[in-house]
Amino acid sequence: MNIHNKKKVVSFLKYKREFQKYGLKKVRSYELILHWLSSRLSRSQFLILSGILVGCTAGLAGVLLKTLVHKIHFWIVTKVHFEDQIFFYVVFPFLGIVLTTIIVLGIFKGNDRKGIGAILYEIAQNSSIVSSVKMYSQIIQSAVTIGLGGSAGLESPIAVTGAAIGSNFSQTYRLGYKERTLLLAAGASAGIASAFNAPIAGIMFAFEILLTGVVFSDFIPLVVAAVCGSLLSRILLQEDVLFHFYARNSFDYHNILYYLILGIAAGFYARYFVLIYIKTEHFVKSFKISRLRKAMIGGAALSLLCVLLPPLFGEGYDTLKTLTNGETTGIIEHSFFGYFNLGSWTVIIFLALVCVLKAFATSITIFSGGNGGNFAPSLFAGGTLGFLFALICKQFGLTDVPTSNLVLAGMAAVMSGVLYAPLTAIFLIAESSQGYDLFLPLMIVSVISYLMARWFSPVNPDLQPMVEQGKIFTNEHDNNLVYSLHLRDFIDHQSQTIKADAPISELFELIKNGKKNIFAVVDDESSLQGVLTMDDVRPYLFNPDEEMHTNIHHIMKAPPATVHLSDNAVAILKTFDDTGAWHLPVVNEDDRFIGFISKSKILTGYRQLLKDYS
Questions:
Q1: Cα–Cα dist 27/39, whole Å
Q2: In what helix (H) or strand (E) does residue 14 lie, and over which residues does it extend?
Q3: 365-125-144 Cα angle (round to 5)
Q4: CA 294, CA 314: separation in Å to the nearest integer?
Q5: Which of 52, 149, 577, 579 is 20 to 30 A (C-alpha) from 372?
Q6: Helices marked H in 368-473 — which ranges?
Q7: For the CBS domain, which residue ranges apply (predicted)?
Q8: Quick one: CA torsion of 208, 210, 214, 219, rounded to 10 degrees?
Q9: SS3 132
Q10: pLDDT-based confidence at 415, cuts 50/70/90?
Q11: At residue 246, does pLDDT exceed 70?
Q12: How far is residue 497's CA from residue 540's CA, in Å, rounded to a whole number?
């Protein structure tokens, strides 16, 4: 062993003794090694290593979940005749939602925050700190829901799982907010890359949805994590599990009109899908019954839909692959529509019903108690819409219709309009079909659908409630940073108060013994009555005659505005700007005074965040 290596070993043993000295004897060996490496490697080197570890872990989680669900579906759909499948379609979706609800209530104490909104919330409101429970809860819940036939997607749960892995990794090694957010996004992108075997799409997902407005110069760990997740997916998953489409046509510019029309149709459908999704959520929440009963009603409704239209069972990727190959016979035969013989119109009616009811099936699955996301449903609905459009064109006598290309373009278009993520949709389909020559039509349909979605609603309606409540912000970099500031961190809880009926001499004592320039006037219940500043008191300081006949009630004034604990930092700064004040009183929901908040403190906190991101 050379001298250099001996020094490294001695240094490592010394590092281990330091941990033991502080009572950290239960630190795992690999954690100790990584702690030691973090002290030896540069920041960039350790972030790249972190990206590899987070990406591999999130990728393995995605592979595990995809494999588990695929095995269940394969057994039900391919090993059982349709007459027997009816029994499974009746029982399994119902069980999936009910069992998921029981698991959430019994094991996870009713905590079922899910979807991409959950990640955005943790970034904006919780300093990118995600509960360690999320590293496995989403896998368990979504595996039960979708494995047993829930009409939703695995990708959102995989993304949340990856985000939790990245966040907890950074917490373990005491990384800062900037690095924690970066590794959170890296874990989510690795999960998406693993689910679709599309690393670029995973990276686009992170930048386009999770890190909107956040500028990172250290994006290499994000790339490394996505590549690791995709590689593990390619190595470990079987070909029939991978999200891959091989049948497609070369792009012909003469077909550009097809893509323009499909883009518009997809834009309207995406709006329909989102509206059904939101209205179903409100409808389910309006039920004043237990969550378990909601799950039973929702499970029964989903089972009925799956019996009538079997493609609504599960993610539906097998159906998409069949449609891409131009085959519909197998899909129709495994449904009640197989008993009818209306030619092409049977297929058109069947697929139209699938498109219309997919939005209901997904919404019922998610909001009645299941766990899943909108990735797979939007892709499934878009592919079905593209194939339906191609069939209608052929029915009207048009020839040379690029059916497989329209299926792929429809997937990208609807996903773009539903998720407000055109770049993610474009690269996802291009990578999954190896159709890089289809970039032009994919861009056409995705941009049209996205612009239509933005025309209907500038913010994704799925995230609108959290945006309105100030829990997340989806546009500007500055507002994203300000939203991450927490009001409670800037309240001066040592603020001085005085009763409204107190004599002014009592205020003089406060001034003499304190260091405050502003005072809150309260009643016996601590409710805010007014405020006083040194400028208000100055005329009485050297006028004994006035002092004898004056109490606080006579000289106090109304505050220019009040701040509530539920207000976010952006709204508070706007109030400061509107009033021109530098100090405002903070009250609770009962209007009881809590303390003063200073504009200068908020701006100092904001500058510190800018420094952390520089």
A1: 16
A2: helix 3-21
A3: 25
A4: 20
A5: 52
A6: 375-395, 403-419, 422-433, 439-456, 464-468
A7: 491-547, 556-613
A8: -80
A9: coil
A10: very high
A11: no
A12: 18
Residue 199's SS3 state is: helix
Tokens of 419: 């998720």
Sign of CA dihedral 609, 225, 140, 308: positive
Residue with tokens 């092409």: 344
Pick the CATH number of 253-465 from 1.10.3080.10, 2.60.40.1740, 3.30.70.2740, 1.20.1250.20: 1.10.3080.10
Which tokens belong to 197?
């075997």
Q: Whole-angstrom Cα distance, residue 584 to residue 39?
A: 44
Candidates 277, 237, 271; CA nearest to 359 is 277
Q: To 5 degrees, how large is the angle CA 436–CA 437–CA 443?
A: 80
- Could you read off the pLDDT of 322-341 as tens digits, one per residue? 887 777 776 777 777 766 66
Q: Which pLDDT score is estimated for 343? A: 67
**pLDDT-derived band of residue 416, with 50, 70 and 90 as boundaries?**
very high
- What is the pairing mode between strands 528-533 and 563-564? unpaired
Q: How far apart are CA 54 and CA 130, in angstroms?
A: 14
221-255 burial code (b ≥16 CB/10 A, e <16) = bbbbbbbbbbbbbbebbeeebbbbbebbbebeeeb
Tokens of 508: 């003089």
CATH 1.10.3080.10 fits 42-236, yes or no: yes
Place of tokens 């043993």: 13
- H or E element: which one contains 37? helix 29-40
pLDDT digits (tens, 9 = 90+) for 23-40: 444 555 656 666 666 667
- Phi, psi dihedrals of residue 518, rounded to the nearest 5°: -140, 145
Q: Which of 565, 564, 571 is nearest to 482 (CA)?
A: 571
Q: How buried is 325 (Cβ within 10 angstroms: 0-12 exposed, 13-18 middle, 19+ buried)?
A: middle
CB 93, CB 444: distance < 8 Å: no
Beta carbons of 517 and 528 less than 8 angstroms apart: no
Give 446-504 pLDDT, tens digit per residue. Answer: 999 999 999 998 877 777 766 666 555 554 444 555 556 666 777 887 788 888 778 77
C-beta neighbour count of 606 within 10 angstroms:
17
Q: Quote the pTM value.
A: 0.76
Domains 42-236 and 253-465 in one fold: yes
Q: Does residue 242 carry a pLDDT above 70?
A: no
Neighbour count for residue 466 (Cβ, 10 Å): 19
Tokens 């790339």 correspond to what residue?
Answer: 223
Domain extent listing, the chain: 1-40, 42-236, 253-465, 485-613
452 in Cβ contact with 418 (< 8 Å): no
8 A C-beta contact, residue 373 and residue 367: no
Token digits for 561?
A: 């505005």
Query: Which of 122, 179, 117 shows the shortest CA–CA distance to 465?
Result: 117
CA pair distance 145, 152, nearest whole angstrom: 8
